[in-house]
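Sat 14:20. Reprocessing the chain from the morning session after the first attempt stalled halfway. Input below, unchanged.
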Amino acid sequence: MSKIRVAIIGVGNCASSLVQGIEYYKNVNKSDFIPGVMHVDLGGYHIRDVEFAAAFDIDKNKVGKDLGKAIFTPPNNTTKFSDVPYLNVKVERGMTHDGLGKYLSQIIEKAPGRTADVIGILKDTKTDIVISYLPVGSEEATKWYIEQILEAGCAFINCIPVFIASEEYWQKRFEKNNLPIIGDDIKSQVGATILHRTLVNLYLDRGMSIERTYQLNTGGNTDFLNMLERERLDSKKKSKTNAVTSQIKARGLNIHSDNVHIGPSDYVPWQKDNKLCFLHIESRHFGDVPSYLDVRLSVEDSPNSAGVVIDAIRCCKLALNNGLSGALFAPSSYFMKTPPKQYTDTEARELTEKFIKK
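Finished this time. Tokens:
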């Protein structure tokens, strides 16, 4: 099998965990259990078959550096769990547009010079798949990059809550260009959203309705700092809310919007890349007796999604190899919060396993 050539847009904490993860697990055996990935060998591709072809960022402290060094450059603050060698991948100057918000601009200085020739770089490096790790709220920047990606002939994995794979217009654009896309908004291994969905389904499976629920999250990485700018949160709140309420609606039930609150809460600098999630569910069991659930989850945010992205990369490459185009419904449903079609997480995993085998 050939290598999978991957380009990254946004060299932040998530990119750091992804790059570290490829290095950390490159020598594992096919029979090994790896937390966070479906299979060491997925469809004929080992974890080490993922290699990095290009990277783009706008931070002057990262642009021009080798990717293996840039991932450890502040304000990145996720856990370092692996050394990374020189990768011979220079971080190129990306496009800004709306990618740099009010609060990020206080700690990040834009690199001087023009935006790099993204199309030319993707073609020259023979990139197969481009991954977007742009900041939440980067609507225009995302759409600008997609035009470059389509022109360069690359597949796309959209890890942020800008609705692309879930929108018919963009699905058709990728179909027309004979390119696959997986999206939107990456779902962590065991994070706030998947835990919330699982608990909601447990209640529904046991015949208990959801009367009220909230999910509050705090963290100290640049994602939480960026989300202090509430104007950038519209798509993020929609994505996280729909990921949970879709499970209720799938049962023919409903919950009033006033009784659901799901979204970021606050930025706590000393938490760094640690994310705290507070979940609350109110219900009633037999005899209309009230039931209350409160849960606290603590996770390192970026590594929590890196293994999921490694699986998404390999599924996307399988689609490329087999001439599939447009939104990949099965992998998107398992890997993403806002896929083109929602399933339960158990159903989504089964569909993705069938996709891989097929």
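The radius of gyration is 20 Å.
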